[in-house]
Give the backbone structure.
Amino acid sequence: MIFCFSGTGNSRYIARRFAEALQEPLTDLNAKIRTCDTSPIQTGHDVILIVPTYAWRIPRVVSDWLIKTEFASAERIWFVMDCGSEIGNAAKYNRHLAEQKNLQYMGTAQIVMPENYIALFATPEAEEAGEIVQKAQPDVEAAIASVQAGREFPAPRNNMEYRIMSGIINPFFYRLIVKADPFRVSGACVGCGQCASKCPLNNIELRSGKPVWGKQCTHCMACISYCPAKAIEYGKRSVGKPRYRFEELED
């Protein structure tokens, strides 16, 4: 069984590729997490988890869900992480998570996809994003081939910098950076509610037709990226940056 969590579509695209190639069911973790559904799941022997990289590890909301959810009959797990540049030392923590689930760890694959973290980094225009996606195709195909053959993914590169990123910076990132407070909405908002419907943590509600953010934010960037009016900003950091969501590349 394939599990996918996605903010702006990169992981969802990769997960669809895996599902088509492996003829395996695809489970949307956004919906599971949104509804706090941690009921046991009949997964079959193999589990493939496909997620974005948040501060050089898998999203905390995903690891929390995994720990709470029983995987009936599961034996092996592969981790696939897309990122804007690198995944750091995420493999170490994925291995620990597999051990907690009593699953055989089959490795972590890194796939570089277009950057979506508009709160801190530059996001690409559509043409550049399309080029990045095309460049990622061999890595997607190689990861699929490894799973088809029942092979472990090759061990990703690891060094002191990566260990600092995933081990030291990650906790500070969640403590200091992952906040919804800087989100704001301009007069261009049409009150469509797209931001609230896309939020995987039910952290947005409409009041008088305008979005209001709560305290349970995971910084998936779905709200700002899917706003059809481009009415949402993240403080001053997002001003003037293109909004990235994978589906625009398929339009």
